[in-house]
Design goal:
199 residues, 7 strands, Helicase, Ruva Protein, domain 3, 5-stranded mixed β-sheet, 8 helices
């Protein structure tokens, strides 16, 4: 086994902590950083530091933003009677790319997974329920990935929301079971959104 300089080993180790990045990809990324100029490496470090220190969760929808309230929640042009519930901030971008959805969002930052100890307390459920008081919200769309965890979370939330008299829907099942919203094309996602069914 060849010797790798300690700082490079540490960089590989840090990259390998990213979800979905294996040892090979982490090594590739680390060597890519090593091939950068000092200026490029500095810009990358500043971009990481800037994103980490300046971006936080919107106090309403929990999506990432620089301001107290994100541009979607603060826009007067959005339909505030509909909330689309998604698992992670990246999913908001996926829906926005369709240019067809004009409501608001709520980011859970995870899905319920009792086997691995992830319960409703570990994700942004109470923040969602806090938004549903009053008579503004008429529909909540469950837009989690069609996985076991996604379905379980959607059903759990629907049970909590139903007594409030708010319509709860889910995306149409045109999405592949076990699939990931991130990889679904805009047309499929738009059809799934348009043909959503009540839970």
């Amino acid at each position: 086994m060849g010797y790798t300089a300690a700082p490079l080993e540490r960089l590989i180790e840090e990259f390998s902590k990213f979800k979905g990045i294996g040892a090979k990809n982490a090594t590739r990324m680390a060597y890519q950083v090593m091939s950068m100029t000092d200026e490029e490496a500095q810009k990358l470090a500043e971009a990481i530091q800037g994103a980490h220190t300046r971006i936080h969760r919107c106090r309403i929808c929990q999506n990432y933003t620089e301001a107290d309230v994100c541009p979607i929640c603060s826009s007067a042009k959005r339909d505030d009677s509909v909330i689309c519930v998604v698992e992670k901030p990246r999913d908001v971008q996926v829906f926005e790319r369709t240019r067809e959805y004009n409501g608001l969002y709520h980011v859970l930052h995870g899905l319920m997974d009792p086997i691995n100890g992830v319960t409703a307390e570990h994700i942004c459920v109470k923040e969602l329920l806090a938004r549903l008081h009053g008579d503004k919200v008429k529909e909540v769309i469950m837009a989690m990935n069609p996985t076991v965890e996604g379905e379980a979370t959607a059903m759990y939330l629907a049970k909590l929301i139903k007594p409030l008299g708010i319509k709860t829907t889910r995306l149409a099942q045109g999405l592949p079971v076990g699939g990931n919203l991130e990889y679904v094309d805009e047309n499929t996602l738009y059809r799934a959104l348009s043909d959503r069914a009540e839970l």
